[in-house]
Structure formats: C-alpha cells, structure tokens
Amino acid sequence: MKRIAILGSTGSIGVNALNVAREMPEHFQVVGLAAHSDLDGLARQAHDFSPKLVSLFDAEAAARLKTRVNGGARHLAPGVEGLVEMASHPDVDVVLTSLVGGVGFAPLLAALRAGKTVALANKEPMVMAGAQFMREAQRWEARIIPVDSEPSAIFQCVQGHRPGKAAGDLSAFIKRVFLTASGGAFYRHKGSLEKVTVAQALKHPTWSMGRKITIDCATLMNKGFEAIEIMNLFSLKREQVEIVIHPQSVIHSGVEFSDGSVLAQMSPPDMRLPIQYAMTYPERTIRVIEPLDLFKVGELTFRRPDFRRFPCLALATAAAKTGGGMPAVLNASDEVAVERFVAGRIRFTDIARVVERTMKAYKPSGGLPTFGEVVEIDQWARRKAEEVCEELS
C-alpha cells in the first residue's frame, strides 16, 4: 500500500491519477489532495477518498473549503506553503505533482529533500533547474519518475540498463532517443498562424489536457520542454535527442542503444498508463487502459519537425545549448506569453516573439545557477516578458 499525495488533483493528470487509484484500492491510499482554486472539484474528491491533508492554492477558495471539507482532513496553508508541507509530509510515500508552470519548483525541492518518490508531470521545474534537482535527488536518496507519456516511455525503455536510482547517467549506453510528438493542433494547418484563435489552439488532435500544456503543444514548445527535461533526467546532450512528429501517438518514444538496437514503448494514447507506472514503480500491475489494437491503428507515420514554422521549438533548442539560466528564461517567458495569448492580449505567433526577445535580453553569467539564482532569473524573465507583451499588444 503506497500513500499518495496529488498536487494538482483537479487537473487532467490529477483526475486520471485518482481514477487509477480508484481502480486499484488495494495498492494506494490517497493521503493528500491539493488544487489551485477548484473548490467544488476538491470537495468532491475529498468526499470520495477521505484524505488526511487538503490544500487550495487560492486563499479565498481555501477559506471556503473549510466549510465543505471537515472531519479528519487537515487543511494546509494556501499558496506554496501548503504545497511544500504536503510534498514533504512524513505520511506521504509518493508525491504526484501535476502543477502548472514554475509554481511546482518549491514543492519538488521539498519532496526531494524529504527523500520522496516523485511522480513528475510538472516538467517546468526540470526545465528551469533539472541538473540541480537531479543532484538533490541523489543527495537525499529520492527518486524522480517522469509521468508525461514521452519521458515515461524513455524511462520505461531504459529499465534494466543501469542499476539503482530511477534516473542517472546513461550516456555509455544510449546513442540517441527518439522523442515523439503528435504535432499539436496546427502541424497540418495550411496558411498563416497569425490569426488562429485560442479555441483553435486548444483543439489537440490526440490528447485531452490542461489549457497551458495544450497551447504549448500547439506551438511545439512543450516538446522543447520535454527535450530539456529528458536531457536532465538521463544526462544526455541535445544532439542525442531526436524529435519526431508521430501523429498517431502510439509510439510514445524510443531509445537507440550503443549497439544499434532500438526499444520503443507503445500503447493507446491514454495518460492513465504512464501515471499508473509512475505510481506503482518498479512493479507492473493490472491493466487500467484498453489494449492496443494494431489492426485498428493501421499504420504509423513519422515526419521531421518544422523548426521554421514552429520557432518555439528552435528557441527551446537554443536554450538547451546555452544552458545555465537560459532554460529558466525560456520557461518563464513562455508562461507569461501563453497567459497573455489566452487572455486575448497577444496573437498566437507573438508567443514565440515574446520568448525570443526575452531570451535575447538575458545576459548569462556562466556556470550552473543555484536554486536561489534560478528563482531570481525566473522573476526577472517574467517582468521582461510582461514588458515585451505590452510592446506587442
């Protein structure tokens, strides 16, 4: 019986994680639930799973939650403080973090320093300071297991090729990884992307996900983030990561080993599988998804990404090559730009322009920044990105 805390429980990943827990009651006890501001959603989840710990990030919603969830549940502080306490709580074995953006930075650090197993769907902290987080995991004998389908596929493919922890240096075994991407909402779109709407950008062809990640899929920034994430998770160089457009989303990624063998992980596009694997690791247990029907799939196709049409992917590649604090600048400026696009303040194609101008304004100091410096870089980049957005709006 593993004791689970879910940070971001009312989002798509959190809901799917609870669906897995509901299917496997003998394997999991849901100890903690945290959400941003969905009072009704968290109250329903608390009623169903009777967690010991609950938290809402939004202070006003958190105050109202106390009238909806009482009994044995302990209400943690709103904001980052409550997330940090839940992530490091002694009654928690596995922390599944599906928070959106840089808000997951402090909870991830707290969980690692408490020696937890972290099922990580919040890739942004690993973009901001992935190498530093991997050092903390090793120092505190913690474990990071990726939840996003493509990093999870790579993680599954390398099992048995090295001993010990769930992530580490695989450069002696791996020639390259094939990081697959569906292509998002606009890969087959003809014509200019200047006038596409928010509603169009949110129509992902394969996956049902949260708003931020869906927009990032439409710009292909999400794939750039994943490239940086897996570089940090598995100690890879950027040239070892081959991004492949695979519209069927059946091969979730693959690994080419030093002897030329390629192992790939395949399944229907259902997030419950990588969530389940991260929660049950190192065991494989019962099936909670539909079986893969290759005859129904029919064919698998692969294309090269178009870096010119989707400049966010090129910007992520540049940030990965520069290293240091640049990935944190990439992440922060993208968060600001996506928020402005969703609010109707800038165009879809302005997202890349905001990120590019913010990156150009940043002056790298050299070396690997400390956690404190990463936070300062993040804050600077957000302010700069806001300025750029005002210029474009």
Sheet bearing the most strands, described? Answer: 7 strands, parallel
Q: Determine the number of helices (DSSP H or I, runs of at least 4 residues).
A: 16
Strand content: 5-15%
The radius of gyration computed from the alpha-carbon positions, rounded to a whole number of angstroms, is 20 Å
Lateral arrangement of strands in the main beta sheet: 4-3-2-1-5-6-7
Taking pLDDT < 50 over at least 5 consecutive residues as the criterion, the unreliable ranges are: 163-167
Number of domains: 2
Overall SS class: alpha/beta
Helix content: 40-55%
CATH architecture of the largest domain: Orthogonal Bundle
User: What is the name of the CATH topology of the largest domain?
Assistant: Rna Polymerase Sigma Factor, Chain: A
Order of helices and strands: EHEHEHEHEHEHEHEHHHEEEHHHHHH
- The CATH superfamily of the largest domain turns out to be RNA polymerase sigma factor, region 2, helix turn helix motif
Task: Average the pLDDT over all residues and give the rounded result.
Answer: 93
Please give the alpha-carbon distance between the first and last residues: 52 Å
How many β strands by DSSP? 11
CATH class wording of the largest domain: Mainly Alpha
- Tell me, briefly, the overall form: globular
